[in-house]
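Quick check before the chapter quiz. The format below is the same one you will see on the exam, so make sure you can read both the input and the output lines.
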Amino acid sequence: MKDEDIDEIPKGKAPEIVPEKLTAPINYKIIAGIIIGIFAIQAIITYSEEKPTALIYILSMGVPLIVGILSLVTGKRYKGMLVYGRAYTALGIAFLGLFGGELTYLIYEEYLELDPYPSIGDLFFFLLYVFTIMYLVIHIRFFSTKIANIDKLWMIAIPIGITAIYWMISFPILEGFNFDFYYGIVFVAAISSTLSLAVYGIRIFQASLTGIPWIILSIGILLFTLGDTWYYTLELYEGYELVHPVNLLWYAGYFIMIYALTLRRKVL
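Here is the expected output.
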């Protein structure tokens, strides 16, 4: 066990003998329940006679809010520790930003009857990627002190490739260089960078005190960033609507992150 691992144990909670590997078992019934549940939710949303707008807003705001609160609680638990305190606090801020963005859009659309794009809500959405990247970087630096050149190559290639594809698709649709074009490029670059770091985080995972919950959390991040990437492509063709299947990726990512955060509390 590395000395840094020992530093991560909250004061007053360290066992007399710390094992070399400490893991938390995955409850596959919960994973299966999440998968079945999100498909059931999507079926309700898709086939309801009246569009269940209230349910959609509860899911889009309430579930990220839970992720944010659980992350902040976890960060507070490890306050002052080398890695975990800062990392989970950053993740908490990220998802409070997502909640703030969704809430702002709701107010604009349903109460003010205004177009929420662009608005202050977009600043909240951008916080999601900035602080999620911060969370991933903190953990990656802890687990992987040296990144191989081949890994650096594909980690850079993924966001460049995704952003370049978006550039080629969006340029003629948005009719050249304008606000909408640059706005989309900035968000797609941030999303694809988050996705790349999540993939690498899963790849370099190792059994340590962070254990299985960390890789599950990274999978959750990967899922919702895939959903965001799909969403920005849909928006180019005005193809997104509240009942679109892209919601499945978002819901799956959020619920898996909630499971990972609750599992994380059982590790130490």
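If your answer matched, good. The two ends are 15 Å apart (CA to CA).
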